[in-house]
Amino acid sequence: MTAPPPEPLRLFDTHCHLTHPRLREDVDAVCARAWEAGLVGCMTIGTGVADARQARALAREDPRVRAAAGIDPFSAHAAGDGFAHELAELRTLLLEGGYAAVGEIGLDYHHDLDPRPVQAARLAAQLALAAELDLPVVLHVREAHADLIAILREHPACRGVVHSFTGTPADAAAYLALGWHLAFNGILTYRRLGPLGDAARLCPGERLLVETDSPYLAPVPHRGRRCEPAFVLHTLTHLAELRGEEAALLAHVTTENALALFERA
Q1: How many CB atoms lie within 10 A of CB 263?
Q2: Residue-wise burial string across 158-196, b where 16 or more C-beta atoms lie within 10 A, e elsewhere
């Protein structure tokens, strides 16, 4: 007797940009491939108010898509002196509903953006808004872990995920001690060993998430191509191998984590 085929893995991509021009032009096909690959949901990130409106529109077309809205460091820099108006617009959008998280928001010291105190103040304002509305947060951080951790300590009511985590085990431990989740993406498949691999191993299962950051950071074997949510399967299987765990079990755990964290929409 032939054994039945294995059940498909149940997956959730916690960070993608379906409104990005590289995905938006064929977003229906992109989503169809995601569902065929076993995804039960994905979080599309609105970076800035205009993009957040588009993200919510996509989420309203398909209940498997959830939307986040936030003023990321790049959008905040582009807003300039108009940031206060952008923040007021963000508040209006979130009060209208249709969003499962505030984000992505955070600190970026890699690029030449706003001075660090300005970035910190803008992040703090959005963290306060997330706490007020009881919404989880999606954090962006590049070369700013120490400052971000210090800010999060000042906002203990906030919860959420550090997206595209690439920090050290010490950074991971600090975020975990504050109650935050860590999300890993295709970067993990580029360098299996080293501090990032160690951080992925030490993260407890109940705080672990997977993502793609589509259309960026396509995992091996698709590195160099346009990334899309279906590729989260490769990151998940690599993460399972790295941790010495069954892929099916890790898929279940990370998906349940995502659904619990982003329960509101």
Answers
A1: 10
A2: bbbbbbbbbbebebbebbbeeebbbbbbbbbbeeeeeeb
Task: Check whether 130 has a pLDDT greater than 80.
Answer: yes
Residue 115, CA distances (Å) to 15, 127, 140, 204 in order: 26, 19, 16, 35
Least Cα distance to 181 among 154, 200, 155 occurs for 200
Is residue 17 predicted with pLDDT exceeding 90? yes
The dihedrals phi and psi of 231, each to the nearest 5 degrees, come to -75, -5
User: Is a pLDDT exceeding 70 seen at residue 154?
Assistant: yes
Mean pLDDT of all residues belonging to the chain: 95
Q: Nearest to residue 130, comparing CAs of 80, 90, 174?
A: 90
In the 8-state DSSP scheme, what is residue 205?
G
- Domains belonging to the chain, first-starting first, are 11-261 (3.20.20.140)
C-alpha distances (whole Å) from 165 to each of 63, 95, 145, 215 are: 27, 29, 10, 17
Asked whether residue 1 carries a pLDDT value surpassing 70, the answer given is no
Answer for the pair 119, 147: CB distance below 8 angstroms, yes or no. Answer: no
What does R_g of the chain's alpha carbons equal in angstroms?
18
Provide the edge-to-edge strand list for the sheet that holds 65-70.
Answer: 11-16, 39-47, 65-70, 101-108, 137-142, 160-162, 181-184, 208-210
Quote the pTM value: 0.96
21/32 Cα distance (integer angstroms)? 18
3 falls in which pLDDT band (50, 70, 90)? very low
Phi-psi bin for 203: left (phi > 0), alpha (psi -120 to 50), beta?
beta
